[in-house]
Design goal:
- The protein folds into three domains: about 220 residues, T-fold, CATH 3.10.520; about 70 residues, no CATH class; about 140 residues, Immunoglobulin-like (Sandwich).
- Helix content is about 30%, strand content about 30%.
- It has about 475 residues and is of the alpha+beta class.
- The strands form six sheets. An eight-stranded antiparallel β-sheet has the order 1-2-6-7-10-13-14-15. It has a five-stranded mixed β-sheet with strand order 20-19-18-22-23. A four-stranded antiparallel β-sheet has the order 21-17-25-24, with no helix packed on it.
- It is globular.
């Protein structure tokens, strides 16, 4: 089911749902699933809640509008009409995307190409046939007439613009949001590719001139997967591509061959469209060529992780990224961790709101050891999940902000505990308590506590669904 765009609420109503703790400049956040086939996260730094609400609405409306033009999954999109025509006079947006795709094709020496739709369809053909098709596509005469915005498409060229269009949409969504008076900063994240503009959360009084973005391992599906590094963005964008990142097989436009030497590639650039295209190119090039390309381009940084676990970075990457230091030592057996599977149940209600959830670990004396996850970016969850908030959260708001994420719709989810406490120190084996608290607006409030006996033998503990908390299963043993 596709998301319905538009706020559907007045500015004051949406502001009430998302209002931050401080009354002046604050950060408002929005999350939605099923946007461009993935998820959307927005953050707006603004002086007033109404400005933030209008900026969020403007960004979402622009995303919906461009989806109708650029989508490869809608039969009624303008892109599909172009791919069905020998030539077509197109909108400014589609012409701009195709022109930019051709520019990035030239910039990357053909490693990125939006012409490869037919190559993707020929994945079952022999390597020889794909190589011949790649040459025909590369040498095809594509004509773009800027005066009439007419595109003449050769028969061997079928446009597949996904490797750039998402970034283009992110850039345009930010442009729409920043036009709202009173907006100081915007972050738009669609499926992990994102761009930031203006002031970061915290406001100018805290000297937050850059956005600090955590980069996780795309191959790690855990809902609270730890960041491998943090990257600092100031009016910049970051995108990640590769089979591990997007669950797809990479194809080289240069040879038509399937490419599997790169697990994932990350690019930082001045625009999301450029970062998107470069990440795609980096994922098919040999690492040495990808890094050389990144170093030739202005304000571009790259990180390549190969399937055998080797990491390669460009010369500017160290200026952008700060590694998260790994913790070593401790009394847990090597490789052990706690895997926690939990369910957000669907509760039959006239008006259903996703629940606020807090998950934390205490010792047997109920002393806080580790806050694992807080679902609910708005301040309201602090009042709703009153047990966690009154005992622990209000004493360390910075910690709470660092683990807070948007609420989740009903479904099965997974988080992990690596044996560290909130200070990053290893804890010993012994008895601990897994605490899960969930509350729902106009709904119920549930707390579940599961005792965990952690020793060298491993353990499995389960709890049946109860109110706002569904089935819970905690497994202590060697991490997979």
């Amino acid at each position: 089911m596709r998301i319905r765009y538009g706020l559907g609420l007045t500015g004051s109503a949406i502001a009430a749902l998302m209002q931050p703790a401080q009354a002046e400049t604050g950060t408002w956040r929005f999350h939605a699933d099923h946007v461009l086939g993935t998820s959307l996260d927005l953050a707006v730094v603004a002086k007033k809640p109404l400005a933030a609400a209008l900026a969020i609405d403007a960004a979402r409306a622009e995303i919906a509008r461009l989806d109708k033009i650029l989508s490869a999954w809608r039969s009624d999109s303008e892109l599909m009409a172009l791919n069905a025509s020998d030539w077509l006079a197109v909108s400014r947006e589609l012409f701009a995307v195709i022109a930019l795709c051709e520019k990035m094709r030239e910039t990357t020496g053909g490693a990125y190409s939006a012409r490869i739709g037919r190559l993707l369809e020929a994945c079952q053909d022999s390597a020889h046939d794909r190589a011949r098709l790649a040459v025909k596509i590369e040498t095809a005469s594509l004509r773009l007439d800027a005066g009439t915005r007419t595109i003449t498409r050769p028969k061997d060229v079928v446009f597949a613009v996904d490797g750039l269009a998402k970034g283009f949409i992110i850039d345009r969504a930010i442009a729409a949001a920043r036009c709202v008076p009173g907006v100081d900063g915007v972050m738009v994240d669609i499926g992990g590719d994102l761009a930031c503009w203006g002031a970061a959360p915290g406001g100018p009084n805290n000297n937050n001139k850059a956005w600090r973005i955590g980069l996780v391992d795309p191959a790690n599906p855990a809902d609270n997967a730890p960041a491998l590094s943090h990257i600092v963005l100031s009016n910049q964008a970051v995108a990640t591509s590769g089979p591990s990142a997007r669950g797809e097989l990479a194809v080289s436009p240069l040879t038509g061959a399937r490419v599997n030497h790169v697990a994932y590639a990350t690019a930082v650039a001045d625009s999301a469209a450029q970062a998107d295209a470069l990440a795609t190119a980096f994922s098919v090039l040999p690492p040495s060529e990808a890094l050389a390309l990144a170093d030739r381009l202005d304000n571009v940084a790259a990180r390549i992780v190969t399937r055998d676990g080797k990491t390669f970075t460009s010369s500017r990457w160290q200026c952008a990224a700060t590694p998260v230091l790994a913790q070593t030592g401790g009394a847990w057996p090597a490789g052990f961790g706690v895997n926690i599977e939990y369910e957000v149940p669907k509760v039959n209600a006239g008006t259903y709101h996703n629940p606020y959830v807090a998950i934390w670990i205490t010792d047997e004396n109920r002393t806080l050891i580790r806050t694992l996850l807080v679902l609910g970016k708005e301040t309201r969850w602090k009042e709703e999940n009153y047990i966690y908030w009154r005992r622990f959260g209000r004493n360390d708001a910075k910690l709470v902000d660092s683990v807070s994420r948007p609420t989740r719709p009903p479904g099965q989810y997974n988080i992990k505990w690596d044996g560290l406490d909130d200070a990053g120190k290893k804890v010993p084996q012994g008895k601990y308590v897994l605490n899960i608290e969930a509350s729902r607006e106009k709904g119920g409030h549930t707390v579940q506590r599961l005792e965990l006996m952690l020793n060298a033998d491993g353990a499995v503990v389960e709890a049946k669904p109860d109110g706002e908390v569904g089935k819970v299963r905690a497994t202590y043993g060697r991490s997979q």
